[in-house]
Predict the structure of Dipeptide ABC transporter ATP-binding protein.
Amino acid sequence: KKTILEVKDLKQHYPIKGGFFKRTIGHVKAVDGISFKILEGETMGLVGESGCGKSTAGRTILRLHDATDGTINFLGQDITKLKGKELREARKGFQMVFQDPYASLNPMQMVGDIVGEPIRNYYGKKMSEIEDEVKDLLNRVGLNEDAYYRYAHEFSGGQRQRIGIARALALKPKLIIADEPVSALDVSVQSQVLNIMDDLQKEFNLSYLFIAHDLSVVKHVSDYIGVMYLGHIVEQGPADEVYSNPQHPYTKALISAIPEIDPEKRKERIILKGDLPSPADPPTGCPFHTRCPVAKAECKTIKPRSVQVSERHFASCILLEEGSVVDDSVNH
Ligand code: SF4
Ligand code: MG
């Protein structure tokens, strides 16, 4: 399969300003060197608790912020530093679906205009010229054509998210970054929206980066999973492998928290002590050592390297390093 997106050692550090002169007194290491690939037609679930850097990673990849370091390669083109016209052109290929469909769509705007706006902006067409195209997009997300003439405020949360998805599709992207696209919706409509995303993926051979705070949400939609902790991807691999054979103690804890209906498969819940440390003052050594149930003394000082577990499965924990293939070049 073709690689759609390749992120290498991506960092996003924000300056912290303080004192009378608002000098830079430190940095928040929101994203601190992450690497991964998304293949054509695949969904990568990026999971972690709030504050782990997953949304910042998504926004940096979309070039809403400039990266502090690292590279973003999209469809074979290095887009890390693109500007102006070239960035605008590349942007057709990657779009975003936001978490809150109430906040992300103007309630007083006509749905046809919302969905058609990117086409109008990019191709300078009149709305009358693209009306059929926009109605077709509305159909594809399961909305009636006459939604075209109605206003966003007339729709429910689930319907608004469909409108957001139709808009994201308007320029025929290859990649959609969806930041918790269903977490603001009622449980009853979550699966409808996920099903639509799944249908569209098959139809257009789309790739998704699906950001979520909960492993149970991405379980059913992801081909590949990345688990983030304090700005790092501590484990990544094919979804079935990560769920059935997690390697990193943090992933093990997250998986133990997923409700399991089958009593035979139920594992003992691993409760993590303490809170997520501040990314402005991350722990030395392994970022997880302050909460890791199996930490050793050396975890405070040694930074774990990325260990290859199988072809596309990697985890960063010193307990895995002995006798394994260690990749020093990137933290996969
Ligand atoms: Fe836990 Fe140490 Fe492994 Fe980090 S390196 S996950 S602290 S055992
Ligand atoms: Mg977030």
